[in-house]
Design a protein that fits this description.
- By secondary structure, the protein is an all-alpha fold.
- It is 79% helix and 0% strand.
- The mean pLDDT is 91.
- Pfam families: BPD_transp_1.
Amino acid sequence: MIELLQQYWKPLLWTDGYHITGLAMTLWLLVASVVIGFIVSVPLSVARVSERRWLRWPIGFYTYVFRGTPLYLQLLICYTGIYSLGFVRDQPMLGSFFRDGLNCTILAFALNTCAYTTEIFAGAIRNTPHGEVEAAKAYGLDGWRLYVHVILPSALRRSLPFYSNEVIMMLHSTTLAFTATVPDLLKIARDANTATFLTFQAFGLAALLYLAVSFILIGLFRLAERRWLAFLGPTH
């Protein structure tokens, strides 16, 4: 274990001397995919509950496809499948984008978590208490102002417990990044195992790092829930 730590603690936690690797890359994949997924999912969730079928059905089809197929396959399609298409290779910008494993990985992760997050937020919007909506309308709020000032803030707060699960699952899903040759935490652990044959120590250390990140994320979400969901608790 000491030999493993002496040789691999830098690649596991930060850099191999050339690029960020290990834990730093895992956190970058998580943050980038979750932030992109969150930003895109908010308007999509509003469209998902729209009364207009032409707006609601395409979003429903997108979430069905990405929730109904394995993330591993989605990553393979983004990393190797799309670049195999002739018109993609013929476009310099598209070809350059899909030749990069990191770009493809973040794209696949963001599309996947966006699909789940869209359904989480859409469910919370549907469950917005009718009284809150009627009270807002009584004050003259309607249309986009009703969503911005009442429905979305209420839905996002009530979604926190479910959204926290999605973020944790996304952290675990980053272990698939090695498929696109992205040097995340698991890939460095695999390299350490191959070089040292210390299988238990290499993967055990990676598991401890994942546990530590999960513990921090759960703690942050608990603090957020305590702050923004206090009104749902019992009154004293």
